Amino acid sequence: MLARLAAEHLSPGLCIALYGELGSGKTVFASGLIHGLGVDDAVPVTSPTFVIVSEYEARLPVHHVDAYRLSGARDIVHLGSRELFFGEAISVVEWADRIENALPADRMDISFEITGPTARRISISPRGKASREALVSLVKTLQT
Hints:
Layout: H1 2-7, E1 15-20, H2 26-36, E2 53-56, E3 62-66, H3 73-78, H4 81-85, E4 90-94, E5 107-116, E6 119-126, H5 129-143
Parallel strand pairs: 1-4, 1-5, 3-4
Antiparallel strand pairs: 2-3, 5-6
């Protein structure tokens, strides 16, 4: 629900960096965000662990990145980080901590913490102007 709602407030080129341990909800959030951007709900969104990047056509193009198998920022640079993170597409990065040095400075960091069998704590930290504007817009919507 939160991810679908957040998708309505994203601007072109924004990077969403997802942090959290295995099973904390990163892929579920990414799926909600991608479907919220307009990808048909019948299209399954899974973590691209072995292919590293999946691309989706939506209201804004989406690059869904899973950095779990990468050993550092250098690996994503070889895969074309400029095209992934500095174009018009929304980039959603799972395991962002593994490639943090390659991510744009203006991004939205979202951390997931397991607090119970089905409970999670989500923390959102905007890291620049575009991400701050998106978060302020989302919060205003949640308050109404």
